[in-house]
Design goal:
Blueprint lengths: L2 E4 L8 E11 L5 E11 L8 E4 L1
Antiparallel strand pairs: 1-4, 2-3
Bound molecules: zinc ion.
């Protein structure tokens, strides 16, 4: 029988935060490195948090 189980890849967290790096211009026209967190859904369960087994 198929049943839902907690995704082994993300552990049920449905995804992970990835840090994305970029370079932006500030008010003085200086290049400054920036980092921001981007939510990325799990590739195994596609953000469901569970997978169907069986
Ligand atoms: Zn997952």
């Amino acid at each position: 029988m198929p049943e839902n189980q907690t995704c082994p890849s993300c552990g049920g967290a449905r995804g992970t935060d990835k840090v994305e790096a970029s370079v932006e211009l500030d008010e003085q026209g200086q290049l400054v490195p920036k980092q921001r967190s981007v939510w990325s859904p799990c590739g195994l369960c596609h953000g469901q948090g569970t997978v169907v087994v069986g």
